[in-house]
Amino acid sequence: MSETAKRRVQSQYDSVAAGYERRWSRYVEASVAGTVARLQIRPRDRVMDIGCGTGLLLGRLLERQPLAQYAGVDLSVGMLSEARRRLPSRVRLVAGDAEAIPFPAGVFDVVVSSSSFHYWPSPRSGLAEVHRVLRPNGVLVITDWCDDYLACKLCDRVLRVLDPAHHRIYGRAECTRLLEGADYRAASVERYRLSWLWGLMTAIARVPASSG
Predict the structure, then answer these.
(1) Distance between CA atoms of residues 201 and 199, nearest Å
(2) With contact defined as beta carbons under 8 Å apart, do 54 and 77 qualify?
(3) How many CB atoms lie within 10 A of CB 148?
(4) What is the pLDDT of residues 47-77, one digit of tens each?
(5) How are the residues of the chain apportioned to helix, strand and coil, as percentages rounded to the nearest 5?
(6) What span, in angstroms and rounded, lies between the C-alpha atoms of 197 and 70?
(7) Coil/strand/helix, residue 200
(8) Which CATH number is correct for 3-206, 3.40.50.300, 3.50.50.60, 3.40.50.150, 1.20.1260.10?
(9) Measured between alpha carbons, how far is 144 from 140 in angstroms, rounded to an integer?
C-alpha cells in the first residue's frame, strides 16, 4: 500500500474510531456475525485479523473459542486503542497493513479479514503477504462487500469518487480469480444479503500443503 493511501485510511479511521460502532452498529454486527458463522477455529489455532478495527470480530471469536491465540493488525492507531479497551491483554494488537504484515512467515493457522478488502490498493500484494504468514494448509477467510449486487456496485462507484481511502470492491468470480492467482487452493466464495442495500461475500481458501 502506498504511503499516501495508508495516510488516508489512517486519518479517516482515527477520526471516527470512538464512534465507529455506534454509527455502523447494524452493519458491523451483521457482517461480523456472517464471518464468524463461516469460521472454524480450533483450540490451538493461531488467528490473525487484518483490519481488526475496534476488535469486535476478535472478541466474538474469543467468546466462541477462548483457547486459541489471537492477534489483530490495523492501520489506525485510534481503532487499535478502541480494540485494546475491549480485548484482553493476551490478544496482540499491532499497527500494520495487509501488504506488510509485521509477523514472521508461517505462524498463523487462520487469517481473517472483515470489511477491509475494498481498501487494499493492491489485492495481489496483500494476498501474497497473507500467504506468507499462513502455515501450510492455513486458511484465509475474507468477508467484504460484493460487486455482484446492484446497490453495492453503485456504492462502490460513488465512493471511488468521494472517498479517497476507498479502492474498489469485487464480485464473486473476480475474487475467486484473485485467490487462485495468489496460489490459494479450494477457493470458495459465498454471496449473501444483509439487507436490501448490503450484499456481502465470504471467501474461504487454503494455502497448499507443503510438498514434503
Answers:
(1) 7
(2) no
(3) 18
(4) 999 999 999 999 999 999 999 999 999 988 9
(5) 40, 25, 30
(6) 32
(7) strand
(8) 3.40.50.150
(9) 13
Residue matched to cell numbers 464471518 = 35
HEC readout, 141-197:
EEEEEECCCHHHHHHHHHHHHHCCCCCCCECHHHHHHHHHHCCCEEEEEEEEECCCC
pTM of this prediction?
Answer: 0.90
- For 84-108, the pLDDT digits (tens) are 999 999 999 999 989 999 999 999 9
Cell of 189: 466464495
The grid coordinates of residue 154 equal 453503485
Residue in the block written with cell 466474538: 60
Contacts of 106 (CB under 8 A, 6+ apart): 132, 133, 134, 135, 136
**Residue 130 to residue 110: CA distance in whole angstroms:** 10
Give the span between the Cα atoms of 48 and 68, in whole angstroms: 11
Q: Tell me which residue has cell 493492491.
A: 122
The domain segmentation of the chain, as residue ranges, is 3-206
Residue with cell 444483509: 194
> Which parts of the chain register pLDDT below 70?
1-8, 14-21, 23-24, 211-212
Contact (CB, 8 A) for 198 and 152 = yes
Nearest 10 degrees: Cα torsion 190, 29, 63, 103: 70
Closest CA to 179 of 201, 148, 154: 201
